[in-house]
Design a protein that fits this description.
The protein is an alpha+beta fold. The chain has helices spanning about 15-20, 60-65, 100-105, and strands spanning about 1-5, 10, 25-30, 35-45, 50-55, 70-75, 80-95, 120-135. It has a six-stranded antiparallel β-barrel with strand order 3-4-5-8-7-6.
Length: about 140
C-alpha cells in the first residue's frame, strides 16, 4: 500500500482481488466498432475468474468474444468522501460448453436486467490494480 498526501492509497493485488470478490455489480468495457462501450453487469468472482451472464447475440456478447476487456468495480461513500476502485484487465471468452456454462450460471447472482441472460462470459484477470481514497493524510 502506498499513501500520498492527497489521500490516495494504491492497493496490493491481494486486496484488489478481495475487493473484486466483495461486490456483485460492476462495469465491463469493450470495444465495439472501434468505439469504447461500457456496460453495467451483475457478476461474481468464481475460481479466479470474473463471470457474467449476458443475452445471446447482444452487443456485449459479440464485442467480448476473445477480446481484451477492462472490468471495474468500486464502492463510494459520498457522506464520508471515501471509497475504493479496482480495475481488472484480461481476455474475455464466451463459455461455450453447455455443462460448464450451466454450472457457472447456477453460481451467479440473478440478473437485474429483464430478458434471457443465458450466455456466460468469463474473464481471467491478467492485470489488476486498485486504489482507495479517503481524507488527506
Amino acid at each position: 500500500m502506498i499513501n500520498d498526501s492527497e489521500g490516495f492509497e494504491a492497493l496490493v493485488e491481494e486486496e484488489c482481488i478481495t475487493l473484486l470478490g466483495s461486490s456483485e455489480v460492476g462495469r465491463i468495457a469493450v470495444t465495439t466498432g472501434a468505439v469504447p462501450a461500457i456496460f453495467p453487469v451483475n457478476y461474481r468472482l468464481l475460481d479466479g475468474q470474473i463471470v457474467i451472464r449476458t443475452g445471446h447475440d447482444t452487443k456485449l456478447h459479440r464485442a467480448s468474444e476473445s477480446a481484451v476487456v477492462a472490468f471495474e468495480v468500486d464502492h463510494v461513500d459520498p457522506v464520508r468522501h471515501e471509497g475504493w476502485s479496482v480495475l481488472a484487465v484480461g481476455v474475455a471468452r464466451n463459455v461455450n460448453d453447455p455443462a460448464v456454462a450451466a454450472s457457472l450460471r447456477d453460481r451467479l447472482p440473478p440478473p437485474w436486467a429483464p430478458g434471457e441472460r443465458d450466455d456466460v462470459i468469463a474473464i481471467v484477470p491478467e492485470f489488476v490494480s486498485g486504489r482507495r481514497i479517503g481524507p488527506a493524510a
